[in-house]
Each structure stands twice: as structure tokens, then as C-alpha cells.
Amino acid sequence: MGLTNNGFFIEAIDYYHCMQFEGVKVDCFTFPSVIKACTTVFATIEGQKVRSRIIKLHLDTNIYSCNALLLMYAKVGYAKDSDEIFEGMPVENLVSWNSIINGYVLASDGQSSLMCFNKIQVDGLKPDKFSIISDLGACALGHSLLNGMEIHCQVIRRGFQLD
């Protein structure tokens, strides 16, 4: 939805309700924008209703909707909900991993964040600058100087310091 991309978050949620009322068919492209709007204005209950609708329409394995839900739950501190969504995803991409890693940091669970960071590398994915930033936050939470130094070495090897 263009409304969400242009900062009209309340209007995007209202428009979504109008679409439902009018019987307009929603799809997997509608939900990420609505969830983003809910996340931005901390409309968690509304976001949970959107999640229920996603489940009802059997779109709960759509990676874009799942990533948006992961981020929403992470930002409001609902780590268990984030975990549930992440575990239910048929496939995870780097955005999914970054969302769950950041979610753990936001929930002050540095250890789980570091475990996920290590897992993505074991699985063959290359952490990007968002992964690195979140994981450095995890190192700070856990006072893990050694892990922080290892991540710093990755930053230098991969040339992220130039960004």
C-alpha cells in the first residue's frame, strides 16, 4: 500500500478496514503493509487481528507476511510470538533471520541472538550489515567482548567499515 510507504499509517489501517467492509479481496501483498502500519503506531491488537486473518486465509507461510509479523512482535517485545512465527516458516531468508536476531536484542536476550547469528553462518547465509549491527547489540547486552571482537573481524574482512 502506498499509504504505508508514505507515512500514512493510521490511514493505511483504516483503508484496510474499508477493504474488508467492501469485500475487496486481500492478498499476500496487502498484509505486509498493514502489519508495517500496525507496527509503526504500536497497534499490536490490530496486528494480531491481521495475523488471525492471515491464518484464516492460509497465507501464514508467506515469507513477506511472516517477516512483517516477526518484526512487529519483536518491536513490541513479544518474543514467544516471534519464535512461533519463525519456527512455522517453511523457509527463512536473511530478512527473517535479521528480524529474529533483532527481536532477541530488543527483548534483552543477547545469548539467543548470538546463537541465531552463529546458526545463519552455519546454514551458509552471509550476515549483512543489519545482522552485524543487531549482533553487536547482543554482544553489548551479554558483555561478550570476545564475540564482539569476532564480529568486528568479520566487519573488516567483508569491508563493511566502508559503508
Automatic annotation (TrEMBL):
UniProt keyword Membrane present: no
PPR repeat segments: 93-127
Keywords: Repeat
Keyword Repeat on entry: yes
Superkingdom classification of source: Eukaryota
PANTHER family: PENTATRICOPEPTIDE REPEAT-CONTAINING PROTEIN
Record NCBIfam families: PPR
Protein name from the UniProt record: Pentatricopeptide repeat-containing protein
